[in-house]
Amino acid sequence: MKTPKISKAIDEIDEQILLRLSNDGRISMSDLASQVGLSAPSVTERVRHLQQHGIIRSISADIDWKALGYVLEAIVRIKPRPGELHKVEAMIDAQPRFTHCDKVTGEDCFVTRLLVRDIGELDPLLDPFHDRAETNTAIVKSSPLSGRLPPLLEEKGFTVK
């Protein structure tokens, strides 16, 4: 991940741009400009600036996986056996049903998310890991909070070039 370079303070307009883009990445620059009170060229320049400095990494679609048949999401904590860390990481990367993977501190080395069409798909996906790791699985019932931005302007002195 690219670390932002220091120089110019992020202001309330930048914060509003980030909030609106995080809610609707397909918003047109003219609509975004009218919502934040600037001209479309000014907003376009600010967005380009935020992209160039790694603050906006990408703008993507929010896909409803259930509409595509993936009705269950599982959070799987994975604790590789000694000497198996890199092999387990490669196995996670090779299985396309894993949609997220975080390497973490603590007892587990990985916290992952994967999608399945039904509960019967879970064991065949996880069984190959059991020779190399311990797994602990929880099924996601709902996600009352997802993708919220942290406060952007409370940190004094956070600036970007």
What's the Cα radius of gyration? 20 Å
The CATH homologous superfamily of the largest domain:
Lrp/AsnC effector binding domain/regulation of amino acid metabolism (RAM) domain
Secondary-structure element order, N to C: EHHHEHEEHEE
Low-confidence regions:
none
Query: What's the CATH topology label of the largest domain?
Result: Alpha-Beta Plaits
Give a verbal description of the structure:
It is a single chain. This protein has two domains: 8-61, Winged helix-like DNA-binding domain superfamily/Winged helix DNA-binding domain (Arc Repressor Mutant, subunit A), CATH 1.10.10; 65-139, Alpha-Beta Plaits (2-Layer Sandwich), CATH 3.30.70. It is of the alpha+beta class and 161 residues long. Helix 2 (29-36) packs across helix 3. The protein is elongated, with a radius of gyration of 20 Å. Strands 3-4-2-5 form a four-stranded antiparallel sheet, with helices on one face. Strands 1-6 form a two-stranded antiparallel ribbon. The protein has helices at 12-23, 29-36, 40-52, 85-94, 122-126; strands spanning 8-9, 72-80, 98-103, 110-116, 133-139, 159-160.
